[in-house]
Amino acid sequence: MYSRILLPTDGSELSHACVTAGLEFAQQLKAEVVAVFVASNYQYPLYVDIVPPNGPTEDEYREAMQAMAENYLQPVREAAAAAGLAYQEVIQFNDSTAREIVHTAQEYGCDLIFMGSHGRSGLGQFLLGSVTTKVLSLCLIPVLVHRIKHH
């Protein structure tokens, strides 16, 4: 059915619950898993000539985001190993999270994206999250939207 599943995460509790469900789904199918975290690009100060003294440099920002992403991906990595799943993880930088999720799925040959109905923003029970909605509109492969019933 599906042989390589992309699991996007933003590090939120809702996202972690969805990734856990995605790993269980992948285990049932004996599918490989690719986990992805998308960080925003570094935002240059509005006035480039006047860099705030306490603001991070681009390199400091990238290092901090890389460390944060690795922290968010660690439980996914451990759970995939415990489940005996082939696992890859990707950390991307892009201001369009949805486009990067779709691009990563294509780049890594995924045949399914398994993602939550909501992530960090949470929002309501009746509307899909904005990133999920954009992925659905951009994607040419199947997207399984997992809804957490009680949080």
UniProtKB/TrEMBL annotation:
Question: What are the residue boundaries of the UspA domain, all occurrences included?
Answer: 1-145
Name the InterPro entries on file. Answer: Rossmann-like_a/b/a_fold, Universal_stress_UspA, UspA
Give the matching Pfam families.
Answer: Usp (PF00582)
The entry assigns this protein to a family as follows:
Belongs to the universal stress protein A family.
Would you tell me the protein name for this molecule?
Universal stress protein
Q: Which organism is it from?
A: Undibacterium hunanense
